[in-house]
Design a protein that fits this description.
LysR_HTH_N, 5-stranded mixed sheet, D-Maltodextrin-Binding Protein, domain 2, alpha+beta, 3-stranded antiparallel sheet, single chain
């Protein structure tokens, strides 16, 4: 049998979720797809899928084989595009993964990059976790962390994130303006739940560190929702700086404790190491390294303006 073809069909079945959906994508009949997977199992002498009338489930052998298939097919595709000069001219599909919150920053940059390189088609996935590009098939993962990832992947630093403390003018008029982190304990501090953040708020100045625990009154895992809650006067919020910029500029929120530094996290572009780096990956990462700091600088001008401070 054509082993590579069988591997491609097997991977497509898993990605599509069914034989029928895979058949439509491959322009084959459902029977042909089912037979190709059965032939592959017979060739390997291993059961890859458990089939029921409602769903497909990978066996343990199937999970291991799926990972190797993606690696092998990726290398075959890399060899094919290299032979066509793809390492010289950006083209083809670029699969990018980013943490949810960064999506509002990344999407406009994709549009600008795409205007420069219209032959590149983007596939952007947003989620609340940092995936392994090799396991999930992403070309570039935009990752957030406090330190350089311990990985065999190439990691390019493209910026840094921090959060700012905000509250609505109405809330501050009713409850007063805290002058020090310790005074936040007397306020209703709302909890933004993020997978990479600790629950407490950590403030630093030149002499010491200060911890503040948010209340249980309101919590959400979406920064934009937290910003709306704070604008509505529910309490004090800790927002990613890029989420806080617009309501601060519009006067709907005021920044608190601007003299204190909060926990900083770094942004990395991660991608598999390759001898011949695909042009679309190389140019996209270079574009991010150049343009993302410029985007951050625009936000910083608003955040550092005392007119937006309480």
């Amino acid at each position: 049998m054509d082993l590579l073809h069988g591997m491609r069909v097997f991977v497509r079945v898993i990605e599509a979720g069914s034989f029928t959906a895979a058949a439509q994508l491959l322009e084959l009949s459902t029977a042909q797809v089912s037979r190709l997977v059965s032939d592959l199992e017979a060739h390997l002498q291993a059961r890859l899928l458990q089939r029921t009338t409602r769903r497909l489930m990978l066996t343990e052998s199937g999970e291991r084989f799926l990972l190797r298939c993606r690696q092998i097919l990726g290398e075959v595709e890399e060899a094919r595009v290299e032979a066509r000069g793809a390492h010289l001219q950006p083209s083809g599909r670029l699969r990018v993964h980013s943490m949810n919150g960064l999506g509002i920053l990344i999407t406009p940059l994709i549009a600008r990059y795409n205007a420069l390189y219209p032959d590149v088609a983007f596939e952007l996935t947003l989620s609340q976790h940092n995936p392994d590009p090799l396991e999930e098939g992403h070309d570039v993962v935009i990752s957030i962390g406090e330190a350089l990832p311990d990985s065999q992947l190439v990691a390019q630093s493209i910026g840094a994130l921090y959060s700012v403390v905000c509250a609505s003018p109405d809330y501050l008029q009713r409850h007063g303006v805290p002058a020090r982190p310790a005074e936040l304990q007397a306020h209703r501090c709302l909890h933004l739940v993020e997978p990479l953040d600790k629950e407490e708020w950590l403030f630093r100045d030149d002499q010491d560190e200060h911890l503040v625990l948010p209340s249980k009154a309101f919590h959400t895992n979406v920064a934009e929702s937290m910003a709306k809650a704070s604008q509505a006067g529910m309490g004090v919020s800790l927002l990613p700086f890029y989420t806080a910029t617009e309501p601060l500029r519009d006067g709907k929120l005021l920044r608190l404790l601007a003299d204190y530094r909060l926990r900083e996290r770094h942004i990395y572009a991660l991608y598999p190491s390759r001898r011949f780096l695909d042009a679309k990956v190389r140019t996209w990462v270079d574009f991010l390294k150049r343009e993302l700091p410029r985007v951050f600088a625009k936000h910083e001008r608003v955040l550092s303006d005392p007119r937006h401070w309480a």
